[in-house]
């Protein structure tokens, strides 16, 4: 079985979409990934406000569990995450 690897520089232009509710979270390059001390991907950190200069107003963030990533396609990252699995935070 052949493993396929993708570089971050390739997938940063992919759009993040939750197929559970159809919500689009923008592109990976406008968001972040949380990695634990062992190098495992844990969460996609999504800036909910998605506005330029949002640092002046504060931002709403969503932590989407990495295990909810259903597929990384040719132009999208497909999630299947339930509302109760999304952690909301404000900065």
UniProtKB/TrEMBL annotation:
Name of the molecule in the record: PRC-barrel domain protein
Species name: Clostridium homopropionicum DSM 5847
Residues passing through the membrane, by range: none
Recorded coiled-coil stretches: none
Pfam families per record: PRC (PF05239)
UniProt domain PRC-barrel: residue ranges: 4-84
InterPro entries found in the cross-reference section: PRC-brl_dom, PRC_barrel-like_sf, Spore_YlmC/YmxH
């Amino acid at each position: 079985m052949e493993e396929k690897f993708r570089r971050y520089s390739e997938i940063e232009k992919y759009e993040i979409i939750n197929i559970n509710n159809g919500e689009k979270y923008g592109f990976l390059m406008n968001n972040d990934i949380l990695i634990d001390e062992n190098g495992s991907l844990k969460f996609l950190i999504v800036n909910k406000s998605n506005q330029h200069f949002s640092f002046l107003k504060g931002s709403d963030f969503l932590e989407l569990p990495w295990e909810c990533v259903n597929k990384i396609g040719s132009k999208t990252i497909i999630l299947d995450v339930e509302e109760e699995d999304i952690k909301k935070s404000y900065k």
